[in-house]
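Q: What would this chain look like folded?
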Amino acid sequence: MFVAVPELTDAPVPSPSPAVVPAARVHPLRRVMRAAAPYLYLTPAVALLIVWTYRPLIQAAQLSTYSWNLLPTTPMVPVGADNYRRLLELPTFGDSVWRTVVLVVGLLPFTLVLPVVVAFATRGVRGRSRAVYQSLIFAPFLVAPVASAAVWQWLLDPGAGVINRVLGSDTNWIREPATAQWVIVLITGWHFIGFAVLVVSAGMAGVSGHYAEAAQVDGATRRQIDWWITLPLLSPTLVFLALMTVLLSAQWTFPLIDTLTQGGPSQATTNIYYLLWDYGFHSFDAGLSAAAGVLLFVGFGLIAGVLVWLSERISFHDD
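A: My prediction, written as structure tokens:
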């Protein structure tokens, strides 16, 4: 008698069950350290901001409510908002604000118009010539303002200055109220035009060449491409330069004014930034100087906010 034995290859093979890997437990302290790592990287910068920016700002706001002549032996007398009232009633405050506006408007051609013209005119320069050209145009930015003030004072000298010899004039450009402000604008513009040209050139390098190629296929001329494509795509760069000019012009001119004119003649070069320094360290009215500083901070903060809001709406982005 025989018994049928089934083939081993036909027998069903049980599938192996997946191995269960126990989940690795992360120590709570390690999870906290992972979450805190970004904040630890930011801590030094935030600490420096608090120590060097926000703490003096709070102290200036506090000092603006006191009357004090900066002498440690003299007590600080609380006066409330009297410093702000005095400041707004002084005619020199309004005049300095107007001179600051004139200064900003006078500098805009040096930081916006001329850099764009120079950057477009020199974009064909390549190789070693480009490096030489960029070095030459950026060099004034590296000159110390006090040193450049001494050189320009010699150039503008009414008796032996090169400029008066060329023009056949004996004008005292620095000591005349009608010309002193424009001398400060000219020297400051000479300082920063190279920096602005490099910023515009960097912005042009970031514009994709595909737009110009597509426009050329459609028959656009070089001028049309520059006007309708390249220039709009440079708008974020130009807004950045305009923002810097509006917010920092008064600070840029401070060493030149202090070296060449000391705010004169007849306060023709006293802008708002130099005025608050004059109140604090010439008149020794710390409360009035602090009040001017607080108003300056609030005013320029509002202007910066409006400019940033406008830039988000008028800028074109290459994305």
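The chain has twelve helices and two strands.
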